[in-house]
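Homework help board

Subject: predicted structure for assignment chain

Our instructor gave us this sequence and asked us to write out the predicted structure in token form, then describe one feature. I got the tokens but I'm not sure how to describe them. Can anyone check?
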Amino acid sequence: MKVSRPAVWRSATALLVAGGFLVGCAARPEMTGVPPSPNSRLYAYLIAHGMARGAVMTGQIGPEGLTRLVTLDKAAQQATLNALKLQSSSANRQADQALSSLLADLPQKTPPITAHPAEQTQKNRLP
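My token output:
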């Protein structure tokens, strides 16, 4: 049984194409995008801290809720610093949980707008 040369080349080409296709399917894709910053939890803490400060300054959190807010803020600060220092998954989870607790304690609705916006601006200024 004699096989012609073009048939051998077609078989070899088909085998090569099929093998290349299978190798391409099995290859792991490269990671695209920018890797997360190790400081991202620090940025999240600074934003949450600013939100807490704003809630206190606008009167959304009164003296009765201030102690709890300060405690949660301090816990989030410590957990964030610990996560920055250790860079471990357990420290990151603890920081995420502390930040979630801080954000959950903040009021969700906005304060009522006063009749005179200039009056509100004066009220928010630091002494």
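Reply (TA_rk): Your tokens look well-formed. For the description, you could write something like this. The CA atoms of residues 11 and 17 lie 10 Å apart. That's the kind of observation they're looking for.
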